[in-house]
Amino acid sequence: MNQSTSEKIIHRLLNNDPFSQWLGIEVLSVHKGKVKLAMEVREEMLNGFRIAHGAIPYALADTTLAFASNSRNKLSMTLTNNISYLRKIESGDRLVAESEEVSLQDNYGVYLINIDRQDQIRLAVFRGTVYRSKHHVDERLP
Asked: Whole-prediction pTM value?
């Protein structure tokens, strides 16, 4: 599998994901096992305290995990994950999420996703573990 296959898979995943499209997620870079995504926080993403609802950075990290773990064309599904919120996130903040493949085994993978603001200030850290099936992603996508 070459790099362009990974990129095609990620773009097909995004094109078939209305929620990630609503978030405004854009793909900045794709490598096998590693992706970099970005989005801008909008007013309708804020909670009653006028800061980003916790689901917003979580959703960006979850999408980053899905894209990174499936970029090797092995259908992967989340087993467990957690997030630590480090700073408040406000409307207008541009969030950049980048994955690191910590461990890759035949049937599972562990990923670390850092979410930074546009000025490289770390906002959240997410860790996820995925199950890697025997199926190919490109055979399962419409």
From this structure: 0.95
